[in-house]
From TrEMBL:
Residues 20-123 form the Polysaccharide chain length determinant N-terminal domain. Its main location: membrane. It is a multi-pass membrane protein. It comes from the Bacteria. Signal peptide: none annotated. InterPro entries: Bact_polysacc_biosynth/exp, GNVR, LPS_length_determ_N. Keywords: Cell membrane, Membrane, Transmembrane, Transmembrane helix. PANTHER family: FERRIC ENTEROBACTIN TRANSPORT PROTEIN FEPE, TYROSINE-PROTEIN KINASE. It is found in: Cell membrane. This is Wzz/FepE/Etk N-terminal domain-containing protein. The chain crosses the membrane at residues 36-55, 291-315. Residues 274-313 form the Tyrosine-protein kinase G-rich domain.
Length: 318
């Protein structure tokens, strides 16, 4: 009688432990019974991931390190704003309380803009290299185009697309595609800017980065020169309208600052960005990470096979 009572008390205290042991044993048994299915699914995923990784073309990344070159400008105008801002306002000229916008950040935003990208693509005639390249011939350093989209011999687009799209890609399509391959980063501590391009061809990636730096410097220079000329014309008109000697002195100093801006722009090609480390044609690919693809594909197959075996077992059990 006492033995039965002890056994009853033991079962009452540890029922969950016994259930857990039974569940674990059952779980391992189910997995063991379905091991061949798990192995088969894992093998299929492993083979598929290897094939997928092999079929992926190499992507090369070229980048350049730049230093802001615009800090030297604006200092004189800022000093005038602090000294003669109130006086100049009497003549209807607003010098501003701050030193102006951050030209480096402005240049980065212009570089990312739709207008700049569209003009860049059209200026350098790179639409086909952006939208229709299938692979890169390493031996001849030549791009091979997808003939279903573009015929190189006749320079003809033959894409089969539905409206509103047309065989010739629009600048909106080109901008979306270009945004995927360009990266512009600014280091918060040092202020250094990195521009990088990814492409099937390393030489194309290098060339595009070089062109981007040249074009953004040119665009920002032209913007500032045009603004300086407009400011000079306005200031000359203000001088003609006032007879106050002190105000005329301020306005002449402002004209002098605009002249400095124009001179600075004319004598420097690297107007906004100075190239610290120029873009190179990379010898090694940036992606795909084929080993990682294979590992992840195999792991996914193993987990899927395991889940399938367990779900099938518990569905039969119910």
């Amino acid at each position: 009688m006492s033995n039965e009572l002890n056994q009853y008390m033991k079962d009452a205290r540890f029922p969950q432990v016994q259930d857990d042991e039974i569940d674990l044993r059952e779980l391992f048994a189910v997995i063991w019974q379905g091991k061949w299915l798990i192995i088969a699914i894992t093998a299929v995923f492993a083979i598929a991931s290897v094939a997928f990784a092999i079929l992926q073309p190499n992507i090369y990344k070229s980048e350049a390190l730049l230093a802001p070159a615009s800090e030297e400008q604006g200092g004189g105008l800022s000093a005038l704003a602090s000294q003669f801002g109130g006086l100049a306002s009497l003549a209807g000229v607003n010098l501003g309380a701050k030193g102006g916008t951050d030209k480096t950040q402005l240049a980065i935003e212009v570089l990312k803009s739709r207008q700049f990208t569209s003009e860049f693509i059209q200026k350098h005639n790179i639409l086909a290299d952006l939208m229709a390249v299938k692979e890169w011939d390493r031996e001849n350093d030549k791009l091979i185009y997808d003939e279903d989209d573009y015929i190189e011999v006749t320079n003809t687009w033959v894409r089969d697309v539905k409206p509103p799209f047309k065989p010739v890609p629009s600048m909106q399509e080109a901008y979306k595609e270009f945004s995927k391959i360009i990266v512009v980063n600014k280091d918060k501590e040092s202020g250094m800017v990195t521009i990088s391009i990814e492409h099937l061809s390393p030489t194309v990636a290098q060339q595009w980065v070089t062109w981007l730096i040249q074009d953004i410097n040119k665009v920002m220079k032209e913007r500032d020169v045009a603004e300086a000329h407009r400011s000079t014309e306005f200031l000359n008109k203000q001088i003609a309208l006032t007879n106050v000697a002190d105000i005329k002195t301020v306005l002449y100093k402002l004209i002098e600052e605009q002249a400095k801006t124009i001179m600075f722009a004319e004598v420097r090609d690297e107007y906004v960005f100075k190239t610290i480390d120029p873009a190179l044609a990379p010898e090694e690919k940036a992606k795909p990470k084929r080993a990682l693809i294979c590992v992840l594909g195999t792991m996914l197959g193993g987990m899927l096979g395991l889940m399938l075996v367990l779900v099938r077992h518990f569905m039969r059990k119910e």
